[in-house]
Amino acid sequence: MTTPTFTNTRKVPTRKNGKITRSYNAWKDMRTRCYNTKFHERNPTYIGCSMAEVWWDFSNFYDWFSDNYIEGWALDKDLKNSGNKEYSPETCMYIPRQINNLLLNRAAGRGIYPQGVSWFKRISKFRADCNFNDKQNTLGYYDTPEEAQAVYWAYKEGAVDATLEQHPLTPNVKEYVRQAFRAQRDEALNG
Questions:
Q1: Gap between the Cα atoms of 21 and 130, Å rounded
Q2: How does DSSP classify residue 114?
């Protein structure tokens, strides 16, 4: 892989009133996710990520950002193509943070149980939980991890649908979200 040389050929401002601009902060964060080894130690799912060469120049990213950024939404690189590792004008889009959070896998911190499932020692049952709207929702206690997992995925599907209805997304983006959710669910349930 070629080592990136980062530039700002048009000298687009990176600060306004002494503060880093949102566009420059988004570009810096993307660079960190792609090329910072300390970040990779804490977030191994980003190992192997890269930026398209056109975005090595902040000026080019700034143009794309200006056309696509939506206040409070998150930059996503793999909604259109699950597992994508490249940030580029063709693969990236801004999506509501709620949707981005619902589609996170969190495999690194999960432990031995399926996504959304933990062992609740006090009552010797499996607990189903799902984070939604910045709140941890306990969905119930079950005898098997499979039962808890089924409840988790049913709840999460409803949460995805409810979130999609709250935001003015194009039908294409809504379908990308539903496809990403189904792929994640199917992989979790079928290995």
A1: 33
A2: P
